[in-house]
Every structure is written in C-alpha cells, then in structure tokens.
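agent> Task received from the user: take the single chain below, predict its 3D structure, and emit structure tokens. No templates, no multimer pairing.
agent> Plan: (1) validate residues, (2) run structure prediction, (3) serialize to tokens, (4) report one or two observations.
agent> Step 1 OK, no nonstandard residues flagged.
tool_call: predict_structure(input=
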Amino acid sequence: MRTVTYGGACSLDGFIAGPNGAIDWLHMSKDVSDIIAEYWKGIDTLVMGRKTWEVAQRQFTAELSKADGDSRIQSYVFSRTLRAIEFPGVTLVSSDAGQFVRALKERPGKGICVFGGGDFARSLLEADVIDEVGFNVHPVLLGSGVPALLDAHRRIDLELTECRQIEGGCVFVNYRVKRARSPKAAKRTSRRGAVAAL
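)
tool_result: status=success, residues=198
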C-alpha cells in the first residue's frame, strides 16, 4: 500500500504561514534542499484542497509548471466549489477526500504527498488515511496565521522515526502514525502507556 505523508515547514507555535500567508520567515539551506530532494524521489502524487491550490497558483506557478510537466507527478485538487481546472496533470475531485485518498492508496504507485494543510489535512487525519507526519520546525513564534494542524476529533498516536537539528536552528522531525491492530490491542497499549506514565 502507498504511503501518505503530511508535513512541511512550520513555526515553533505550529503555523505553516504567518498572517496574510507570510512565508518570509522560512529558512532555506542545503540541509533543507537535500531533505526535499530525497523526499521527492519517493513521491508521484500530490493531493491538496482548494485554498492551497489557489495559493500555489499565485506563488509557485513556475514550480507547479515544472512539477506538472513531469509525467510522473499527478495532482488532485479537492473542491466542491470549483467547476474546472485548466492545468496539465491536475485533476479536480469533488467527492469525499478521505474515501478518494483511501482508494488512491490501493492503486499502484509511489508515495502520496498532502500539499498544504489546514482543513484539508484535518479531513485526511480524521479519515485516518495519513501514514506519516513530518515538519521542519523553525525557531520563530508567529503568533497567528495558517495552522499546521487542526482538531481531527480523535487522538492520533505517533512514533518518532527521525529527529535532527539542521541549519538555521531548525529541527527536522518525522513521525509514523501508529494504528492499533485491533480494539483489544489498542486497549492493551493504552494500559501499558498509563502504567509507564506512573
């Protein structure tokens, strides 16, 4: 089964963009470039919501053209208000995002990247289709902006798979979403955690 990943750069207080979409706080470095290059080797699909698509069109037109010109990248934009998207390699989807991505995971292919965040990422976390969550945490407190994570209306347990300091005082972290094998297994795990916390 294909892996769905969600993440990106965020402030220490959990925002992926500042007020009015500001991204002037982002610190680019060779570390970041290497992480991104390695990540994209394993990705052939992007999924995003309407708001992210509109921002991406305004700010990253050149990058989108390059990515969508690459025949191995397929993008899906989820919206119930858009009527059409005229862009190579981009498909508009109006059905339930969780169900669509769950079916997408069953198809042959490489990894699936959740592009952007906010309500769209929350809907996929709520649907339990995201497998990994990773962020390049920046040493800045933005105070407000676009939150990286919103309430998914359930607890999601994570297992740390990578944590390292990178240039600019940033910390790169990656987590795997832990899924209980069964309700009984989940109950046993919960008891062990409670005992360990005492």
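agent> Step 4: summary for the user.
Confidence is low (pLDDT under 50) at residues 182-198.
agent> Done.
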